[in-house]
């Protein structure tokens, strides 16, 4: 059997050519990185958990009419997705201050924001994904005004959906990042949610205890990352039956 073609390898996922034109296979690795890959580890079971969790969230988005790239899960680590032309921006929505916003504005982590705030960062590892304004986005042509309006609307709908399902299982959605892609139909394109939605790209805090259940556990050395993701999956009822991770994360760098 011919070896399938690798299209792109990122820090946490690999994209392969899909079985039909316009599709790709997205493979979830166990690798975790933080601070622009300065910190790296392999965390047993992370890829399996994120594959399941991203499937769960994307299917939910589909059910409420929010277009996204998910077609179907293929196996423990792979899902079939629609190819999309990724807009080179990370779209961040924040409900509570944390992370870079807290640092930038000197705001205590956990401070409720007056309304959800949408931010854009340019996807550029060499520059450390800098924050950019809507003016930059339009002026430099990363997206046009219509795309920008659609991206904000899409991100806020995802925020409402994700906040609701997390609240239902006792978790506060502090913030998250999504990536958005263009899908072309003749001369027109529409925008879809792409990449992944998982605890790698969200901040999730237990409502009662404030315990962190997301990638900050790894970034800030707060414990076992796979245990935190397993807890999210367990509460949502999407825990794959045969994931075990009794070992500690192994530092590979
Ligand atoms: P930040 O506070 O570090 O800017 O992160 C905001 C949100 O974006 C948080 O939920 C984590 C997520 N995020 C990513 O998914 N990828 C990244 O590279 C970074 C820096 C943050």
TrEMBL record:
NCBIfam families, per the entry: purC
Pathway: Purine metabolism; IMP biosynthesis via de novo pathway; 5-amino-1-(5-phospho-D-ribosyl)imidazole-4-carboxamide from 5-amino-1-(5-phospho-D-ribosyl)imidazole-4-carboxylate: step 1/2
Record-given protein name: Phosphoribosylaminoimidazole-succinocarboxamide synthase
Superkingdom classification of source: Bacteria
Gene name for this UniProt entry: purC
All copies of domain SAICAR synthetase/ADE2 N-terminal, residue ranges: 6-235
The species this protein was found in: Profundibacterium mesophilum KAUST100406-0324
GO process annotations (BP): 'de novo' IMP biosynthetic process; cobalamin biosynthetic process
Record GO cellular component, one term: cytosol
Example GO molecular function: phosphoribosylaminoimidazolesuccinocarboxamide synthase activity
């Amino acid at each position: 059997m011919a070896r399938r073609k690798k299209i792109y390898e990122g820090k946490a996922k690999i994209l392969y050519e899909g079985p039909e034109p316009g599709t790709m296979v997205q493979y979830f690795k166990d690798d975790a990185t933080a601070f622009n890959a300065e910190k790296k580890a392999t965390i047993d079971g992370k890829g399996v958990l994120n594959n399941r969790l991203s499937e769960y969230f994307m299917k939910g988005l589909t059910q409420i009419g929010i277009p996204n790239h998910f077609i179907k899960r293929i196996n423990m680590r792979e899902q079939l997705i629609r190819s999309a032309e990724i807009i080179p921006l990370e779209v961040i929505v924040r409900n509570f201050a944390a992370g870079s916003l807290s640092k930038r504005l000197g705001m205590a982590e956990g401070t409720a924001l007056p309304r959800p705030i949408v931010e854009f960062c340019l996807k550029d590892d060499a520059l450390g994904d800098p924050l950019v304004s809507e003016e930059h986005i339009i002026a430099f042509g990363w997206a046009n005004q219509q795309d920008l309006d659609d991206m904000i609307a899409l991100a806020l709908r995802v925020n409402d959906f994700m906040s609701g399902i997390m609240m239902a299982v006792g978790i506060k959605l502090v913030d998250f990042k999504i990536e958005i892609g263009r899908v072309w139909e003749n001369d027109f394109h529409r925008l879809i949610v792409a990449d992944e939605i998982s605890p790698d790209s969200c901040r999730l805090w237990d409502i009662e205890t404030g315990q962190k259940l997301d990638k900050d556990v790894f970034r800030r050395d707060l414990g076992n990352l796979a245990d935190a993701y397993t807890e999210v999956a367990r509460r949502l009822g999407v825990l794959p039956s045969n994931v075990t991770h009794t070992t500690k994360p192994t530092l590979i760098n």
